[in-house]
Design a protein that fits this description.
The chain is an alpha+beta fold. It contains ten helices and five strands. The chain has a five-stranded antiparallel β-sheet, with helices on both faces.
Length: 237
């Protein structure tokens, strides 16, 4: 099949018989199609404005977006690696990954029952704006034709998101969306700025301190951030 033929086939499978739908619904349909196409347990589409900022736009499946959320909390993992390198990152079995590659992410993912991961960057103008992420509960390797379809699905999601950004109504809708799904992420950045000023350290070091403290105490990064912003928890140098 030609690339154009494959592209239209994938687009038809994503859209089904629906009429005109908005970009957010398109993202959800891309997640649903992608998970069904390769038998994944979970699929998520995330937007990133830096290598550590993740806004989950849409998710389907068993883990409900745990992949990007976990990576943001730890600052490591396939979706961040795909974003930074602007290339596909695929791991057939997390139990076989070099422990130095993603030590925290692998441990938490395996504990959540995730064995295989795939992250595809959402590319626009030669750079990434986010990623399409899939997980499996057992080791999985994709044939080339399935990966080709997922790359096309990621392109559909990218174009839908860019359409949101390119129109006044779309910008408002995207702002509301990110305000809803990115609320937890925003409080982390508030706490990072607070710590950076309080301890006279860089924002990068402040975020690292937050992550380390949450991990060492077995707590939630988001809860810790809320407590720091509220003034009920104070971290010392």
């Amino acid at each position: 099949m030609s690339m154009d033929g494959r592209r239209w086939q994938v687009l038809a499978a994503i859209m089904g018989t629906a009429g005109l739908i908005n970009a957010v619904d398109t993202a959800r349909r891309v997640c649903d199609y992608s998970a069904r196409r390769v038998g994944a347990a979970d699929a998520a589409i995330s937007l990133m404005s830096s290598s550590t900022v993740v806004h989950v736009v849409a998710t389907v499946g068993d883990h409900d977006g745990v992949l990007p959320d976990t990576q943001f909390a730890l600052g490591e993992g396939p979706c961040l690696e795909a974003y930074r390198g602007c290339q596909v990152v695929a791991v057939a079995d997390l139990e076989q990954v070099d422990p130095l590659r993603w030590p925290g992410f692998c441990a938490m993912a395996l504990e959540a029952g995730i064995r295989s991961v795939l992250s595809i960057p959402l590319q626009a103008g030669g750079s990434a704006i986010g990623s399409l992420d899939l997980t499996w509960d057992s080791p999985a390797a994709l044939p080339d034709d399935a990966l080709a379809d997922l790359l096309l699905a990621a392109d559909v999601a990218t174009k839908a998101i860019l359409l949101l950004q390119s129109s006044p109504d779309g910008q408002d809708q995207l702002t509301r969306l990110l305000g809803e799904v990115g609320r937890e992420t925003m409080v982390v950045h508030q706490a990072t700025g607070f710590l950076s000023s309080q301890l006279d350290i860089t924002p990068e070091d402040a975020l690292a301190r937050l992550r380390a403290h949450a991990l060492a105490n077995g707590g939630s990064l988001y809860q810790l951030a809320r407590e720091i912003v509220a003034g009920t928890v104070r971290l010392e140098l």
